Amino acid sequence: MGAVAQPPAELRTYRGVPASQRKAERRDRLVSAGLELFGTRGIAATRVDDVCAEAGLTKRYFYESFESLDDLVTAVMEAVLLDVAAIVVPVIETDGWRNPRPVFSAYIGALLEDPRLVRLLVVETHNGALANRREEMVELAVDTWLASDPGADKSPEHLPVQRLLAHAMAGAAGEVALAWVNGRIDLTADQIVDQLVRIFERITPRV
Amino acid sequence: MGAVAQPPAELRTYRGVPASQRKAERRDRLVSAGLELFGTRGIAATRVDDVCAEAGLTKRYFYESFESLDDLVTAVMEAVLLDVAAIVVPVIETDGWRNPRPVFSAYIGALLEDPRLVRLLVVETHNGALANRREEMVELAVDTWLASDPGADKSPEHLPVQRLLAHAMAGAAGEVALAWVNGRIDLTADQIVDQLVRIFERITPRV
DNA sequence: GGAATCTGACACTCTTTCGTGTCACTCTGC
DNA sequence: GCAGAGTGACACGAAAGAGTGTCAGATTCC
């Protein structure tokens, strides 16, 4: 009848850092480890223990921040998308679609500098839970593009075509980035951007 | 000292069909089951037992024809590529690249008629053992295209660009097909083909 | 200095799946 | 019709991985 087992209790600082910061740092290390492993060997070939080893932590701390590997996958993807958006969005806002080169330069540049991003965004996004998110991303890109591009043909009968063109452009850019990081295309990053811009301009119908 | 254990022994006919044909039929059913499951739920979500249940066979017969699930994956992909090639190659040989619409119509038509093919060729080809084969396929397509298209710009400084354009076109077509089977693009199959042909013609530099 | 928490290593159970084995039953060839 | 091969259902052990528990030592707070 005495007191029932007490929940965890207090949170103390350790080695000078408060508990919340320690936990956040461990989470960050796990996300970094996830980015590294998912972006190189791929999600399907990554185990919880692998992530822990890469992060230099034990499973206990994995489950402190994540419920499952899928949970970490989501977190890694979220982090990557935030990073990329932070790079691309300002460029869109200043240069806009009338001058697409800076936009492609920023986006493709970010990808080509880190092959892990290419693998994550182009290859691994096809995995189960991420497939829907991928489609949503493309659709979102279409909508933002159409909304922000004054030169786009927005007539109702062209809307499905614009949608198709956006998917085509996304697919083209992804496949080209993938081929490039795999050493299949003997061009410089700048030349890649040039060609993608050229494709964009030739494909896009202007009013 | 006596005779050692004899290997299986003879092969008899059963229910009227000879052993070799029975084995071949079982293999075919397993490949069909693989196509169905890999093309719908995906390779990663498919187990050996699932394939056997789908094929109406037991594991014994799975391992009669395949060493592992990866082995079946390879066989399924081989069968699919043969099918698609059988449809597309004759069209290329008769119509050629000067008139790309029949080519795209044949290829995309074959894909759009069977969503499982789209999933297999666009999504599942990124899986481990298949990734290399995928790259090879694209490269092969580039080479055949360049070799057979008299109008293509084959000057040495444009070769890497042609290579890039082929990857771009492959990525665009794949992504569009995927979006279409997922109901993201409100166009008819013919309109999809029209747009892809238009993209091809606008992208491709002619001499 | 001592009680309590934090940390890391690792042992442990549970589940899933693989690949093989067993067995009863069916069909074939002679 | 009978010895033996073919068939299908299922049992079985091995292996890998998930998620939890334990424990000793380090660190903190009072």
What does this structure look like?
The structure is a homodimer of 207-residue chains. By secondary structure, the first copy, chain A, is an all-alpha fold. The first copy, chain A, folds into two domains: 19-66, Arc Repressor Mutant, subunit A (Orthogonal Bundle), CATH 1.10.10; 77-203. Helix content of chain A is 70%, strand content 0%. Chain A has helices at 19-40, 48-55, 59-65, 69-95, 100-112, 115-123, 128-148, 159-181, 189-203. The longest helix of chain A is centred in the middle third of the chain and has 27 residues, at 69-95. Chain A binds a DNA duplex (30 and 30 nucleotides) through residues 8-15, 19, 22, 47-49, 57-63, 68-69.
Number of helices of chain A: 9
Q: Number of domains in the coordinates of chain A?
A: 2
- Spatial separation of the terminal alpha carbons of chain A: 80 Å
Oligomer: homodimer
Structure, briefly:
The first copy, chain A, is mostly helical and 207 residues long.
SSE order and pairing:
2 copies of one chain form a homodimer.
Chain A: H1 19-40, H2 48-55, H3 59-65, H4 69-95, H5 100-112, H6 115-123, H7 128-148, H8 159-181, H9 189-203
Helix pairs in contact in A: 1-2, 1-3, 1-4, 1-6, 4-5, 5-9, 6-8, 7-8, 8-9
The first copy, chain A, binds a DNA duplex (30 and 30 nucleotides) through helix 3.
